[in-house]
Amino acid sequence: MSFRALFTAGLAAFAPLASAYTTPKGDPTGNAIYEPGLNSIVPVGKPFTITWEPDTKGKVSLVLLHGPSTNVKPIATIVESIDNTGSYDWTPDTGLAPNKTYYGIELIVEGTGQYQCTQTSRDGHANNH
Q1: What pTM was estimated for this model as a whole?
Q2: Domain Yeast cell wall synthesis Kre9/Knh1-like N-terminal spans what residues (predicted)?
Q3: How far apart are CA 64 and CA 119, in angstroms?
Q4: Computed over its alpha carbons, how large is the radius of gyration of the chain?
Q5: CA 29 – CA 109 distance, rounded (Å)
């Protein structure tokens, strides 16, 4: 395989990060996330319904986060610019690391940057922040 092919393949791996969702601003407020909740199990490779209180108007995006709460980073866009209906069906990728590595879901209100997030392990517990 040529360098060009490897480079192109490498760039493709980062495509999910090149998204157009609004940058989160301020402190987390509104749109409280219900599921995944404190005792939720989020199985990989199977549909899971993310639910929240849709208390803002407009569109929202959901972003998968990774890392400890002191250094969490976005790793993939779950869905961009959907109506704020209070739920979204998501199938977590089977390549996610086991519960020793923590993940979170961030809900961002498009246009304002208002956000809410929850921290969870791949197949374990979650906490709203």
Answers
A1: 0.77
A2: 36-119
A3: 10
A4: 15
A5: 10
Going by C-alpha positions, the residue among 111, 106, 104, 101 that lies closest to residue 27 is 106
Contact between 67 and 73 (Cβ < 8 Å): yes
User: Cα–Cα distances in Å, from 126 out to 11, 77, 78, 102, 105?
Assistant: 31, 19, 17, 9, 9
d(CA 118, CA 129): 6
Q: How far apart are CA 100 and CA 4, in angstroms?
A: 35
Q: Find where tokens 């976005």 sit.
A: 74
CB 48 within 8 A of CB 126: no
DSSP 8-class letter at 22: P
Each residue's pLDDT tens digit, 8-57: 333 344 444 556 899 999 999 999 999 987 667 788 899 999 999 999 99
Q: What is the CATH number of domain 21-128?
A: 2.60.40
* Residue 73 in tokens: 């980073």
Cα(106)–Cα(24) distance, integer angstroms: 9
